[in-house]
Design a protein that fits this description.
223 residues, 13% helix, 15 strands, 44% strand, single chain, mainly beta, three-stranded antiparallel beta sheet
């Protein structure tokens, strides 16, 4: 196993890279039943700082991204799909709960992302109780200086997620995010949700096309 430290942010998070067969848990969260690279988060030494808006931030207090980090978001994240790998909850004290969030919360559903442009985001997910998977289109605004992605609605820019890290490993691109745990599906219950750290691997063009083909229900049409 290869262990590396995050280079983009001093969050004191580490990654352990290994190849594992998908357990039913991952299959239920929209991953194919085959060997995939799985990244496991180790708890950060100092946890996260909860800011005045209740959003977890890096424990070193850094909010300004470097020019290189901003470039990676623009060039490597935008225009691509991102497949879910893992999610760990951040508790009210800013500590990472080192257990799989979706295993502990079986009614919750993970989501996968596609950023067609800097102003658009699509989530692909299941809704609890729904028979078929679907998608939801968001109008977003990205603050590249912080790495924040917000819902861009009239009079409101509601925090959705933050790009904690963007990096390449063994030929694959990954992102790690701080995000609202309830933002999958059509966003119902988002304001009551907590926060977590999630990891995603970049989809191939073929994988993105399959998500677009298979996730056909428009959650905007669901009450």
């Amino acid at each position: 196993m290869k262990k590396i430290a995050f280079k983009n942010h001093s969050t004191k998070l580490c990654l352990v890279c290994t190849l594992l067969l998908m357990a039913p848990l991952f299959a239920s969260c929209d991953l194919d039943d085959k060997e995939e690279p799985i990244i496991i988060i180790e708890p950060p030494m100092g946890g996260f700082i909860i800011d005045e808006d209740g959003i977890p931030r890096r424990d070193d207090g850094t909010t300004q991204l470097s020019e290189n980090e901003q470039r990676l978001i623009k060039n490597e994240v935008i225009g691509h799909g991102w497949k879910w790998l893992n999610t760990y909850e951040i508790n009210e004290h800013g500590a990472l709960v080192y257990q799989d969030y979706f295993k502990e919360n079986p009614t919750a559903r993970c989501c996968n992302y596609y950023f067609p442009s800097a102003n658009e985001m699509t989530t692909y997910s299941y809704l609890y109780g729904a028979k078929e998977p679907g998608y939801f289109d968001w109008t977003i605004a990205i603050d590249y200086t912080k790495g924040d992605v917000c819902l861009n609605a009239p009079g409101d820019k509601y925090f959705l997620l933050n790009f904690l890290s963007v990096f390449k490993l063994d030929g694959l691109w990954y992102i790690t995010t701080i995000e609202r745990l309830g933002m999958n599906g059509n966003g119902i219950g988002m304001t009551q949700s907590g926060f977590g750290v999630s990891e995603y691997v970049r989809m191939t063009d073929e994988e993105l096309a399959k998500f677009q083909h298979d996730y056909k229900v428009d959650w905007r049409m669901v009450n």
